[in-house]
Amino acid sequence: MALSKVPGSAIKGFANASSYDSNRPSYPSEAVDDLLAKLQIKGIKNARILDLGAGTGKFSQLLAERDEDFEVLAIEPHQEMRKECEAKKLHAVEVVDGLANKMPVETQNNAPKSWEPRSPWEATMKKIMWSYDDQYPRFRHEQWRKVFDKQLSSNPFAIQAADPLFSLPLGEKAVEFVHWLRPEAVWDRFRSLSQIAVLEGAELSSVKDKVYAAMSASHVKRNGNGDLPLHGRVVYAWTSAIPGAPLKNGG
Q1: What's the CA gap between 33 and 100, in Å, rounded?
Q2: Which of helix, strand or coil describes residue 242?
Q3: CB-based burial of residue 154 (10 Å sphere; 0-12 exposed, 13-18 middle, 19+ buried)?
């Protein structure tokens, strides 16, 4: 489904961009280093990077803080998320409005397995999250793969007839992490999910009760401060453009 504008549910769900930025995690340095290495731009000075769907700039910020002095174009269609990113005034990061099918650029810039919960209470939270389906695809639905897979048709002459933009198969890797959080911080992070953030009144209270009930179960592991281990998984993929200049040369 090609979108020409930001869905209303996303506009409302991410309206509190400040809360999103405060409560959602950043990316592990291991994942960032490895992805940049796979793209052949780790250590390359002034390489140009397009951060599509930059959100509040979590990834762009990590790029801006590196020694390579990357030139980053952060594209984000949600106004409040984009404002949050702009407010950070990141070094060598230009923040602009745009969509994947309508990017304000004239030249090119430079299989995850389903995450399995580590504990019953996290499984409950995953079940709640998946129960709210607004029909808009997210990363976990893996519809993004079709952009690459549909480059070639299934007929014997596909290679000769097609004009693919990216090499296949995609390179893929995942890095797992854990954050120890107070129950209130766990709820704040969970509520930052767009499909939960749009809930109101009794429905929101019901979800909150379920989350807190899951966290209060006797089997839940806690540290000495009463924090809970919230596990996460960063999945990233990479490819290269065909034809075109190598990424390390600015293609």
Answers
A1: 24
A2: coil
A3: exposed
- The model scores a pTM over 0.90: no
CA distance readout (Å), 239 to 145, 158, 167, 244 = 12, 19, 6, 12
What's the rounded Cα separation, in Å, for the pair 239 and 222? 40
Cβ-contact 126, 215 below 8 angstroms:
no
Which residues have C-beta within 8 Å of that of residue 116, sequence separation ≥ 6? none
Spatial strand order in the sheet of 48-52: 48-52, 71-75, 93-96
d(CA 74, CA 82): 9
Bin 209: left if φ > 0, else alpha if -120 < ψ < 50, else beta. alpha
At 182 the three-state DSSP class reads: coil
pLDDT 10s digits, 158-214: 544 456 788 888 898 888 889 999 999 999 999 999 889 999 999 999 999 999 999
Pairing label, strands 93-96, 71-75: parallel
